[in-house]
Design brief:
about 350 residues, alpha+beta, 7 helices, 4-stranded antiparallel beta sheet
C-alpha cells in the first residue's frame, strides 16, 4: 500500500536528515580518532627528543667544563690552593660570552663551600641555595637537575687528592623553548591532516565503502605516515643541531679566548703558547678533527704542523666552524677554524633516530 502523498516527502526528508547526521557523526569520529592518534605520535616524538637532546646538551656543557677543569688543574698541580687562582672572572667570562646556554660557573672547595662564582649578567639567574655535589673521588663529570637549572659538575684534583669541583649551570627553559619551537609546527600539521582525512571521509565514504579497494585504510595509513615523516624530520634537525652544538660552542669559546690578539693588535710571533691552546682543545675533545688559526688565507697555527704556511682548505667530509677574530696587526683578517667529521654527527643522529624508530 502506498504512503499518502502528504507523508512521503516527510519520510524522504527524514531519511536524508538521518544520512546527514550519520555522515556528520562519522566525520567527527574520524576527526577525533585521527587527531588523537597523530597527537600521540607527536607526544612520543617530543618525549624522545627531550630525553636525547638533553644528552647532547650535557655533552656540550661537559666539553666546555673540561677546558675550565684543565686550566684550573694546571694551577693545582703546582700544589697551590684553589683560592689563590687568579683570573677566574676573566676565564669564566670567556665561556659566558661565547655560549648563551651557560648561565653561571661556580667553583667549590672539597667541603662544598663556594670559592668563585660568575653569573651571566645578560640574563642573571638565582643559583639554588643548596647544591648536591658529586663524589670527588669519581673523576667522571655528573649532570643533574637543580630546580630550573641543569648542573654539570666536574671534580678538580691536584697531584695527590681531590680539592674541589667546578659546576656549570644552564637554564632548563632554554631546552624547553628550543624543543617547543621545533614541535609547535607539528601541532598545526596534525590539525590540518586530521581535517583533511575527515573531509575525505565526508565526501568519499560512500564510494569507498562500495569499492573493493580499502580506500579509507589507505588514506589513514598515508596520513599517519606523512605525520611520522614530519616528526622524524624534526628529530633529525634537532639531533643534527645538538650533535654539532658541542664543536660549534668550542669554536666560539676558542675564538673568545683568542680575541685579544686582534683587540690589542698583537703580533702573533710575540705570543707564546697558542699552539698549545689549539692542541689542548683538540686533546680534550676527540670529536674535533682539526683546529687552526688563519691569517688572511694562510694557516699560521694548526693542530697538524704540516698544514702551517699553506692556504686553509675546507674538507667536504667535515663540518667546519670559523670564528672571525677581526683584523690583525698586519691588517689581515684573523680567524680561528674548528672542524669535526660529518660521519660523527651522522652516526649520532642515526643512533638517536633509531631509538624513536623502535618506539614507533
Amino acid at each position: 500500500m502506498n504512503a499518502p502523498p502528504a507523508i512521503a516527502p516527510k519520510v524522504a526528508e527524514g531519511a536524508a536528515t538521518g544520512r546527514t547526521g550519520r555522515r556528520l557523526a562519522d566525520v567527527m569520529t574520524m576527526l577525533l580518532v585521527t587527531g588523537l592518534s597523530l597527537l600521540l605520535l607527536v607526544y612520543v616524538g617530543f618525549g624522545e627528543a627531550k630525553r636525547t637532546y638533553i644528552e647532547f646538551h650535557a655533552q656540550k656543557l661537559i666539553a666546555q667544563g673540561r677546558i675550565i677543569e684543565n686550566t684550573l688543574a694546571a694551577f693545582l698541580r703546582n700544589g697551590l690552593p684553589i683560592r689563590q687562582f687568579a683570573g677566574f672572572s676573566t676565564l669564566a667570562d670567556q665561556f659566558l660570552e661565547s655560549d648563551d646556554d651557560i648561565s653561571a660557573i661556580v667553583v667549590y672547595d672539597q667541603n662544598g663551600r663556594e670559592v668563585f662564582r660568575r653569573i651571566d649578567q645578560k640574563q642573571p639567574i638565582e643559583l639554588p641555595a643548596s647544591v648536591i655535589l658529586p663524589d670527588l673521588n669519581v673523576r667522571e663529570p655528573v649532570m643533574q637537575r637543580a630546580g630550573p637549572l641543569y648542573q654539570v659538575t666536574l671534580p678538580l684534583h691536584s697531584k695527590f687528592e681531590a680539592v674541589g669541583s667546578v659546576a656549570i649551570f644552564s637554564e632548563t627553559r632554554m631546552i624547553d623553548d628550543r624543543l617547543e619551537a621545533a614541535f609547535r609546527p607539528l601541532l598545526y600539521l596534525v590539525g590540518v591532516m586530521s581535517m583533511l582525512f575527515a573531509g575525505f571521509v565526508a565526501f568519499a565514504a560512500g564510494h569507498a565503502y562500495r569499492s573493493r579497494v580499502p580506500w579509507l585504510q589507505i588514506a589513514y595509513g598515508v596520513t599517519f605516515l606523512l605525520a611520522s615523516a614530519a616528526v622524524v624530520a624534526t628529530l633529525v634537525a634537532l639531533y643534527s643541531e645538538g650533535a654539532q652544538g658541542r664543536v660549534r660552542a668550542l669554536a666560539n669559546t676558542l675564538g673568545q679566548r683568542l680575541n685579544d690578539i686582534s683587540a690589542f693588535a698583537l703580533d702573533l710571533q710575540s705570543i707564546d703558547g697558542l699552539d698549545r691552546t689549539l692542541a689542548e682543545v683538540r686533546r680534550l675533545n676527540p670529536d674535533i678533527k682539526e683546529a687552526g688559526l688563519i691569517l688572511g688565507d694562510q694557516v699560521r697555527l694548526h693542530t697538524a704542523p704540516g698544514r702551517v704556511g699553506k692556504p686553509w682548505q675546507s674538507d667536504p667530509a667535515t663540518f667546519e666552524y670559523v670564528v672571525d677574530l677581526g683584523v690583525s696587526e698586519q691588517g689581515k683578517a684573523l680567524s680561528v677554524a674548528v672542524s669535526t667529521p660529518k660521519e660523527i654527527v651522522y652516526r649520532a643522529v642515526f643512533r638517536s633516530v633509531k631509538n624513536f624508530a623502535a618506539l614507533f
